Amino acid sequence: MKRRIAALAVAGALALAACSSAAAAPTIELVDAPEAQELLTAPPTGLVVLDVRTPEEYAAGHIAGSENLDFYAPDFLDRLDGLDKETPYFVYCRSGNRSATTIDAMRDLGFTEVYELGGGVVTWAEAGYPLEQ
Description:
By secondary structure, this protein is an alpha/beta fold. The protein has helices at 2-23, 33-41, 55-60, 76-81, 97-109, 120-126, and strands at residues 27-31, 48-51, 67-68, 89-92, 113-117. The chain has one domain (26-126): Oxidized Rhodanese, domain 1 (3-Layer(aba) Sandwich), CATH 3.40.250.10. A five-stranded parallel beta sheet has the order 1-5-4-2-3.
């Protein structure tokens, strides 16, 4: 009887571990400009649009509603780590290099839902989507 209870306890613990690890799997997705436009038109609840270019680049033209977090700032990783990990984020830069590095950091920091604009704001503008200043 004790063996049966122990076996049931182990099976239950394994089932719980499997469920919790499946639930903890992050959503990290690369989207193109049309997919990004669709995402921004009907965003997940609480979506934050994060522009990781310099303040000068941001001022020259950015996606409406975005927040600027300068990739080159000395405290960039600390500021990134200070963001709410459960909030969904849409991240972009100029061409996709800085945002790809940012996405890797966000994955390592435990963010749960992140979308990256493939090709950056360059592809956004080339697709004819607006930028605001």
